[in-house]
């Protein structure tokens, strides 16, 4: 019969794993008090062990996530292993994505404590999000190839064959030549659009982010559009503090505000003067919340659904356009680590809300 390792050897192995594991490991009682903590956790909270033991773990968590951790601890004390994902800071550390497992410890059939093991999965989560975004792009590019590229190419090929049957001086030759030219121009526009999008997605020739003064960029865009706004009978009000800064690419910021202001002018409501308001407010120390709102014709957001920011999607068929503007705005915003949402009502106006770090 094989002999079992002595209890002392098992304890040494466990302690070695506890002390050297890259995962954060805590041992808590029913009230959430930390009874033991490994060096990885101490490094994250940047405190010595004597200032951690005996404290309630929730003190190291933001108030918003404390109830969830309390709930999961109580579930573990029922005797089952609990696993969940959470994006949070711990102590004074930056927020990270954590894969958290709470494992009950039993003695004589009774749960006497719970080990919490937290693995940093920030990079894995980021990679998964990038893959998801790339898959969405691939779907849109497939649509472009099957619709926006194939149609003008098929038309052009048919027109070339038709030209071969017409005399150069005939009226049909001139008309066919004009249609051929239009289809080739459309094909060229689509190819240039795709090149622009791929360049942005791949971040080619992208200048490193800098602390850009928001008010300065917005005023430059508003100034460049002043004549167009005046001709449209509109006004633009900017309420952004001179000291407001974002870590961003200046050219992308310029493109974002130019596209949104151009859209506001293009889709203004008939019967009332256009009013556009651009504001920015800090969201703690995380970044700036920028709002671009107008009183234009608006559109049905619920009906548009997920298509609002998709390529070549348009919601005002009576106005010319290729449906590129909002797609570029969203792409620019996300390439700088931000996000954008939209609220709109028909005949009332549209409001874009942008967060930039």
SSE topology sketch:
Elements lengths: L6 H14 L3 E5 L5 E4 L1 H7 L20 H11 L5 E7 L7 E12 L2 E11 L1 H42 L7 H32 L7 E4 H11 L1 H6 L3 E5 L5 E4 L1 H17 L8 E9 L3 E8 L6 H4 L20 H11 L3 E7 L3 E8 L1
Parallel strand pairs: 7-9
Antiparallel strand pairs: 1-2, 1-5, 3-4, 4-5, 6-8, 9-10, 10-12, 11-12
Helix pairs in contact: 4-5, 6-8, 8-10
Walk me through this protein's architecture.
The protein folds into 3 domains: 7-120, Beta-Lactamase, CATH 3.30.450; 123-205, Signal transduction histidine kinase, dimerisation/phosphotransfer (DHp) domain (Helix Hairpins), CATH 1.10.287.130; 208-357, Heat Shock Protein 90 (2-Layer Sandwich), CATH 3.30.565. 43% of the residues lie in helices and 24% in strands. With 357 residues, it is an alpha+beta fold. It is elongated. It has a 5-stranded antiparallel β-sheet, with helices on both faces. Strands 7-9-10-12-11 form a 5-stranded mixed β-sheet, covered by helices on one side. Helix 4 (122-163) packs antiparallel against helix 5 (171-202), helix 6 crosses helix 8 and helix 8 (250-266) runs antiparallel to helix 10 (325-335). The mean pLDDT is 82.
Q: What is the string of SSEs from the N terminus onward?
A: HEEHHEEEHHEHHEEHEEHHEE
What do we call the CATH topology of the largest domain? Heat Shock Protein 90
Tell me the count of domains: 3
The main sheet comes to: 5 strands, antiparallel
* Rg over alpha carbons: 29 Å
Shape annotation: elongated
């Amino acid at each position: 019969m094989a002999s079992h390792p002595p209890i002392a050897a098992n304890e040494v192995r466990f302690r070695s794993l506890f002390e050297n594991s890259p995962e954060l490991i805590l041992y808590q009682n029913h009230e959430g008090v930390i009874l033991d903590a490994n060096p990885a956790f101490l490094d994250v909270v940047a405190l010595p062990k004597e200032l951690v033991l005996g404290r309630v773990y929730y003190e190291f968590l933001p108030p918003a996530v404390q109830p969830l951790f309390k709930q999961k601890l109580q579930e573990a004390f029922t005797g089952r292993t609990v696993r969940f994902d959470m994006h949070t800071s711990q102590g004074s550390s930056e927020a990270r994505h954590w894969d958290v497992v709470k494992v009950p410890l039993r003695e004589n059939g009774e749960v006497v404590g719970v080990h919490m093991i937290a693995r940093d999965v920030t990079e894995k989560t980021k990679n998964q999000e990038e893959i998801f975004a790339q898959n969405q792009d691939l779907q849109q590019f497939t649509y472009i190839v099957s619709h926006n590229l194939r149609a003008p190419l098929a038309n052009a090929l048919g027109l070339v064959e038709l030209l071969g049957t017409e005399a150069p001086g005939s009226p049909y030759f001139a008309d066919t030549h004009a249609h051929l030219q239009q289809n080739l121009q459309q094909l060229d526009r689509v190819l240039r659009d795709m090149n622009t999008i791929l360049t942005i997605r791949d971040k080619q020739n992208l200048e490193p982010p800098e602390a850009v003064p928001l008010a300065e960029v917005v005023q430059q865009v508003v100034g460049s559009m002043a004549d167009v706004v005046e001709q449209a009978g509109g006004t633009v009000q900017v309420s952004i503090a001179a000291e407001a800064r974002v870590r961003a690419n200046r050219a992308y910021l310029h493109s974002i505000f130019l596209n949104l202001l151009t859209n506001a002018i293009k889709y203004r409501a008939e019967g009332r003067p256009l009013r556009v308001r651009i504001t920015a407010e800090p969201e703690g120390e995380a970044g700036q919340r920028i709002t671009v709102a107008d009183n234009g014709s608006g559109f049905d957001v619920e009906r548009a659904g997920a298509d609002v920011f998709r390529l070549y999607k348009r919601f005002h068929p009576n106005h010319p356009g290729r449906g590129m503007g909002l797609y570029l705005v969203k792409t620019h915003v996300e390439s700088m680590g931000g996000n954008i949402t939209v609220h709109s009502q028909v005949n009332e106006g549209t409001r874009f809300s942008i967060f930039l770090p």
